[in-house]
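Changelog-adjacent note: as of this version, every example in the card shows the full chain rather than a window. The one below runs 330 residues end to end.
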Amino acid sequence: MHRSFQPTRRQAVASFAAAPWLLHGAARAQVTWPSKPIRYVVTFAPGGFASNFARMLAEPLGRSLGQSVYVDNRAGAGGLIGVDNVTKSPADGYSIVMTAANTTAITPAVMGSKMPYEPLRDLTPIVYLINQPNVLVAHPSVPTGKFADFVAWAKSRPGEGFATPGIATSNHIMGEMLSSNLGIQLAHVAYKGAAPLTIDLLAGGVNLAILNIMDAAPLAADGRVKPVLVSTAQRSALLPNVPTMQELGASAFPMISWQGIFGPGGLSASIVSRLNASFNDALKTGPVQDWMRANGATPVGGTPDDFRKFVQTEQRLWGDLVRKFKITNS
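Full-length structure tokens:
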């Protein structure tokens, strides 16, 4: 006798799901990422180092991803405005932000519970892009022929000011470290950015400043300032005769300025992987390599996990220094 086959509900579902034409249809129904332009937030105003670097990367990034990538400058509050905007954006890969230690390690230690976001909860690390040194520079009138001459000069002038582009920046904390480790009494003078600081430094209104190498190297090249030391572990190719803090015993570790890419918290692993690969490829392109060499930047790259571990290390390092030097944002 012929027995008719009556599939169970489970068998019917399994058969339906396994049908190749149905699987193909389901795949077509899914939207492939990226399917629209990507917003690349920069936490500084147009025309500066970070904004120019972002625009330099956007073109090869867009080629790799097959979508346009546009830079969205959202300056203010030391970078918090732009980063907070991305933490509140959908975790769909269409909003990313380039930021650094101030918004992910220093300011969180300064603000504590008043921070608008928690960096490694509300942000997804994607890639560590580059690092650069900060540079201690002096007015040409300051004796710097030998480092010992500079230290003697500083010790003879307790309360000598060191200028930085802002409170609770890596520049600020570097100055506090120098003051403590060299046994000199420097007083922090905060400016609202590198431009007004440079005007005062060149006019002799302040004798010392800590600047990013982007701002310091051109001034040093034409003799308008004297570079004293750099903050990275290795000497900079732009200032090869300038020693590092570690060479001089002014710090046991480098105090670098860096830039990295984050997305909103909860960004999918597949999107993170695609963005990471595209940024790593962009760092290797000729124009980007030329730009980095000209601006004293060292490319890093690597995996998202590498970057997450680096940020965790930065949080411990800068957090300890914020507490040690009692850094506040006022």
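Structural remarks: The chain is about 45% helix and 20% strand.
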